[in-house]
């Protein structure tokens, strides 16, 4: 039976439950776009829809190459070399990275399995715990952090491109002497060139990103190993395993554990939205194998390269470098300098797309699913990343520490809430089709589309995380703020969560799309 009133159609199910409540406009949009009858156009499009199991292409190798690129990012090298400067020796750095790698391996498997089972990206996954409307909160927080870092990482890559251009065309140095909105002419040429390259790659969708990551992974590993061997040869095949200011005793162990915790915090953003990629994974086994070789083992290789680069440079002149870019700049052979710069550019683009471009694309598509598909959301994200003039953000400690640092501090509690709801409350039982319905009786409608229990859990734990991040009195535990925030978020949510259920486990295959969209 159906009734019509004020432009709304309602269909009653056999038990009297309202199966759908949609406007004539929604019906028209659904018909025009060929959407399944049970979904709302305000919640569903081809990019947000679950992926079909048949035809998923992300293998263990593809998962591995994500980490082969991301682990060897310039930012990570700067962090790990910083441990050397802070007084940790070779084996202590390896231990810190190894501990961090084991923690990440476990966390990423938990997050990755969610994507493999449901086939949906992070903004849709957030609807499970926060509601079909409340999911905008975690999605936009994650997207805002990512879009700022997309611009910043593009700027950092453009610095490498400037070095490359001057090495090939020395007269281009003349274009680096002026300034417009904080960048020289050469700086603008470099930044916009990389901005366009990334936009073109992403415009072809997740399948092109998969192919690019698969190409970039071996290039980065070979380049960084070659750079380490070259530095070792420059230091007469010996390195300094420690500095004169090396730590010992309890202070050393505290720094090792703190370094491992900070290493996990660096990946706090990626742990949250790893399902954006694993929704295309062939199996749980692919995720486990890819994570194992890409995280613990790859991080030990990364640690060996860090120790070699930093220790060799310290052996040569007693100087602690800040980044591999410092070494690349000193390469005396122009041909080798060009190859090294190209490899660093390939690396930075790979890291930027996986860590900072995909997340805001899905967040914006989730916000405006009727108008923004993957390509349009990519363009909007890229434009925002340009107009914020990210080099000025990077050069402002206040912006980095308080704005981006503040948003980053919220990711721990968000992770705790989402994971506790999925694994502990629901025991991974999800009704995937109902993630895309505005039916007031839907499993994830809650109150007006928002789960007040998740919001109640988030507000105090977010405030607590911000206090840990910014109040000097808590500086002693600041290294562990992500873990503390995640744990407190999970505990508070478990205290207020509705455990009654019933929690139905329904596949999304009926409304799924091909994973190569």
Automatic annotation (TrEMBL):
UniProt-annotated stretches for the region Disordered: 1-20
N-terminal signal peptide: none
Pfam families named in the record: Transp_cyt_pur
Keyword presence, Lyase: no
Gene3D superfamilies according to UniProt: Hydantoin permease (1.10.4160.10)
Main localization (coarse): membrane
Membrane topology, from the record: Multi-pass membrane protein
Transmembrane segments: 77-108, 143-169, 181-202, 214-232, 252-274, 295-316, 336-364, 376-394, 400-425, 454-474, 480-497
Compartments in which it is found: Membrane
Keyword annotations of the record: Membrane, Transmembrane, Transmembrane helix
Keyword Acetylation tagged: no
Domain of life: Bacteria
InterPro entries linked: Pur-cyt_permease, Uracil/uridine/allantoin_perm
PANTHER family documented for this protein: NCS1 FAMILY NUCLEOBASE:CATION SYMPORTER-1, NCS1 FAMILY PURINE/PYRIMIDINE TRANSPORTER
Family under the similarity heading: Belongs to the purine-cytosine permease (2.A.39) family.
Protein name (database record): NCS1 family nucleobase:cation symporter-1
